[in-house]
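S1.2 Input.
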Amino acid sequence: MRRRTFFLLSMVFVVVPMAFLAGCNTSPTIPEGLVGVWQTDEKESAEVTFDFSRERIVISSGTGVFEYTVEKVEAEKGHLYNTTLYSIYYLDRDGETNLMNLLYSPEEGGIIRFKSEQDKVWRKGE
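S1.3 Output.
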């Protein structure tokens, strides 16, 4: 009886956390598949671009150019199709940490959708 209790407790404290961590990867830089300039054909955002490098995000729009430093990136396998959910933590001009959540799919040269606006498709520029 004691062995069985010990075994069950071991499973809870060792195996369960390992299974949770296996589904989420963390990196200090933007993954290679996201590196590049992204644009959308959507009319209201046609002037906006997101330029991802390994350590920076540059957002250009009609109101200006804004550059941010990446702190860390968490990746989690998506539920639909072949997507990955990226949670990108970056520093703004005031040194505050912000979060950008986006879904990435490698099909058709790469597609991203921001979690907050999933019907808007962003593609890598050529």
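S1.4 Remarks. The helical segments are 2-22.
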